[in-house]
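Feature request disguised as a bug report, sorry. It would help if multi-protein outputs had a clear separator. Right now it looks like this:
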Amino acid sequence: LMDYVVGNPPYVRVHNLDSIYENVKRYKFANGGMTDLYLAFFELGFNMLAENGKLCYITPSSWLNSLAASNLRQHISLCRNLISLVDLGHYQPFDGATAYTIISLFSKSYYANSFDYYEFDVATYSRRFVDTLKYDETMLDGAIYLANRQTLAQLREMKQLEVGARV
């Protein structure tokens, strides 16, 4: 078992998986929707962690809201092991790659009702603290939304109004 798992898993969409498609779909975190190979790496990484181990990945931010990553989000919501997220926004850290990326830090022994949210500051090439967010503040319709607490509260209000208008 590992104390630290750090990486940049491969971003390979389902339609480019070819011969390994069936193997990837065997992973719980990658068996829903239009999956991506990096989702299987989350499951592999979590399974490799020692009792106090930490996992830190830079991946597409699509796991926050994609149908394919719903099992990953459910796992995170149950385990509450997310320490922090750093949203790189429009900054493209890799030449030739066009993906909105996020840095995610987890700890197997960590259990809390909140995590720290940062945005990447291109001017200083460092993270800028935004807020400490509670899971129930960020989870809407099965997806994770990131913003400061005030903006998230407004978003939840708008969602409730939408639901009320449909009834």
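(second protein starts here, but nothing in the output says so)
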Amino acid sequence: RESWVRAFARRVGRRIKLSSAYQWCVDDWFDDGVIKQLAALHAEHVFDVVFVEYVFISKAFLAFPDTVLKVLDTHDSFGLRHERYLASGKEPRWFSTSLAQEVIGFERADVVLAIQSGEAADFRARIRAEERTQVVQVGHLVDEVPPVQIPYSRSAIFLGSDNPINTSGLSWFIEQVMPLIRREFDDFVLKVAGGVCRTVSQTDGVQLLGYVEELGEAFSSAAVNVNPVQMGTGINIKILDALAHGAPSVTTRSGAR
């Protein structure tokens, strides 16, 4: 738990957009009491391999001896992650740390999994040469599915969760892009599916589908898939899923990364 002095300093720093106010040390969110419990589990089961999810949980590796293969599944790059939000005029969310602190987490692992090639190259460049840590790229794995039947209609689909990046991108598309489309085609409909439906009202030209059981159900409901996100990190799973289903997509530069 953060002291009230540090919490107050963090709030003040964020008011003036001080970069350090958005950064945490890599272990700040970790509960040290977990290490004893993990060590007890290892004593009972003698694990060969241990996976840890996210760099800010990497301290968990300290519960295991060198005989255990330690694999860090990063999911995302958290070094200076907040700067990407600030550069896009957004309030930073979730976890961000310094580049040096992130490397501390990397070097606790034998293998670091990166989700895209750019992040893999960055991680390798920052890990010290004398360390035995290897970086391996393992992207998002998609299911093998037959292509969906795309309808001939003036419609698009946006499928996503209600995280702030999706919410902001959808709002931008509805407010800035849809008026331009509907000026040419007044019957154009944007269909919205997934948790992001909770963040938008059903207005003229917007149809909320809610949760869908199958991704193909969403992608086959419109002529084109759109991904209007303005920023982000990691990999754009929405685009990979759309491509896997054979759905044509229109996206921003960030959405195509």
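Even a blank line would do. Unrelated, but nice: The longest helix spans residues 164-184.
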